[in-house]
Specification:
By secondary structure, this protein is of the alpha+beta class. It is 24% helix and 37% strand. A hairpin with an 8-residue loop joins strand 2 and strand 3. Helix 2 packs across helix 5.
Length: 208
């Protein structure tokens, strides 16, 4: 029994090397300057170890889209994941009226996700998710506001593990930012685009 168990508190085990390496790759990824990314508290009950990022796509002072990406790790493996790592995402963006009524919009948004991963040459398994379209209409004291529509993408997938059991999380983050930019309506950034920045290094807890 460790000291934390004696006083009634739970001691978090040290993060294993594959998880630390995967988090370091996220922290060192080079991203487009229009996408502001920073660490955020990770969920505590989805996996023994987790690390989370939140992002906002900005154009001047206007926020075009926002999202959250969570890296989960279970060293013992997970049957549903078919691996020891899992990436989970939520992306939201406002829609133009003509896009909101397109019946193919959910299929197109899902193809943006898979296409972003494929464009980076990434292999992955067990993808799942939902695409939700919502509209808001205002009445009474709010009737002056124009109707608004929003798209929400929730998805998860298992990144393939490379040497040392570590997935290429930096490239998965870059693909996720490609998706976020596409949902926000930004033009694509070409390979080797100089207009990318490195995610700020913020040292903090790497596990639950």
């Amino acid at each position: 029994m460790n000291e934390g168990d004696r006083d009634g508190t739970r001691t978090t085990p040290p993060a294993p090397p594959p998880f630390r390496a995967a988090v370091d790759a996220l922290r060192s990824a080079r991203l487009r300057p229009q996408i502001e990314v920073e660490p955020t508290p990770a969920p505590k009950r989805l996996a023994p170890f987790a690390y989370a990022l939140e992002a906002t796509v900005v154009d001047g002072e206007q926020e075009l889209a926002d999202g959250r990406l969570v890296l989960l790790h279970d060293p013992a493996g997970h049957d549903a994941w078919r691996g020891t790592f899992r990436l989970v995402t939520l992306i939201r963006a406002e829609l133009e009226p003509e896009m909101a009524v397109d019946p193919l919009l959910p299929d197109v948004c899902w193809s943006w996700l898979t296409g972003a991963l494929q464009a980076r040459g990434l292999t992955y398994g067990e993808p799942s998710g939902t695409v939700t379209r919502a509209s808001s209409h205002y009445f009474g004291g709010l009737s002056a506001r124009p109707a608004a529509s929003q798209i929400e993408i929730r998805a998860s997938w298992t990144p393939r593990e490379g040497l040392g059991g570590v997935p290429d999380t930096g490239s998965h983050l870059a693909a996720w930012c490609d998706l976020l930019a596409q949902v926000a309506g930004l033009p694509p950034a070409g390979p080797g685009d100089a207009s990318v920045v490195t995610l700020p290094q913020r040292r903090g807890p790497q596990s639950r």
